[in-house]
Amino acid sequence: MFGLRSDGKRIKTIDPIMKLTPHIMPQRNDAMVMSLYDIDCKGMDGYIFAKRKEGLHYTYMDIVIAAMARGIALRPKLNRFIMNGRIFKRNDIQIAFTLKKALVDSADETTVKLTFKGTETLADVHEMLQKEIDANSKVVAVNDTDKLAKLLTIVPNFMIKFLIGCLKFMDKHGMLPKSVINLSPFHTSLFITNMKSIKMNYVFHHIYNFGTTSMFISMGKEKYEPMVLDADEEKIGVAKILKLGIVIDERICDGLYYGNSFREMKRLLDNPFLLDTPLEKRVEDQK
């Protein structure tokens, strides 16, 4: 309560305009900004093929998550969130995603949330990701998030509404237990959905009013598209492009910071070999 939370610290030295913004746009769906990023797969493919010769098998999902975790570690304002009109910096770097247990309509879904220090290499991220996928992809597997969801839905519908209302009130006022926040996929730095895995194009997915997620990224199925290879020589070619649909909460930082941040992430995606070297130290946000 009183601006104190278990998952973040309130930022007090904030620009007056930024401080007013959450009161002008009180909901996240008021403040959603959408952007499409085209990523040339050449760099990622080169990395994947090089590692395959070493007996290592990486995916685009590994690289994208590693680049996003590193990007947030380098650009800490991306890890802020708004709650009850206040701006907080998140304690941890967390990325959540939904996992389909089998590629059939009837298969259940589960949600996984990974916590990063921000200094991990791509190999570290791959190992963490693979461990969670292996543990949760079995049809009979039930993680703690699934158990919490089941617990909240064993009561009648009117009670579900009451319980969710209580959780929202507690979250708004900093009273939501840390154990619940740790399990909640809605309390995360970034939520990512891999539409490529079900052979679909990217989408612009809304960010949730419940919880603290300030960014949602959708990976679409890669496609071959014409592109300019050399503007001076007017040379045009074909490239394999991975499209990322990005939705952000514009209230946590200004447009220039967002632009520079995603340029940094694109630099890492264009050359994943940069992620083989651990980050020496995570950049800290202001107080």
Tell me about the largest β-sheet: 7 strands, mixed
Q: Which class do the helix and strand fractions yield?
A: alpha+beta
What is the ordering of alpha helices and beta strands?
Answer: EHEHHEEEEHHHHEEEEH
Total tally of structural domains: 1
Q: What does the radius of gyration come to?
A: 20 Å
Q: What's the count of strands?
A: 10
Helix content: 25-40%
Oligomer: single chain
The fourth-level CATH homologous superfamily is Chloramphenicol acetyltransferase-like domain
CATH architecture: 2-Layer Sandwich
Strand content: 15-25%
Short description:
The protein is of the alpha+beta class and 287 residues long. It contains eight helices and ten strands.
Give your account of this protein's structure:
- With 287 residues, the chain is an alpha+beta fold.
- It has a single domain (8-272), classed as Chloramphenicol Acetyltransferase.
- It contains 8 helices and 10 strands.
- It has helices spanning 16-24, 42-52, 60-74, 122-136, 144-152, 157-172, 178-183, 255-270, and strands at residues 8-10, 32-40, 80-83, 86-90, 93-100, 109-116, 190-194, 215-219, 223-230, 235-249.
- Strands 2, 5, 6, 7, 8, 9 and 10 form a 7-stranded mixed β-sheet that branches. A 3-stranded antiparallel β-sheet has the order 1-4-3, with no helix packed on it.
- A hairpin with a 2-residue loop joins strand 3 (80-83) and strand 4.
- Helix 3 packs across helix 4 and helix 3 (60-74) packs across helix 8.
- The longest helix has 16 residues, at 157-172.
- 30% of the residues are buried.
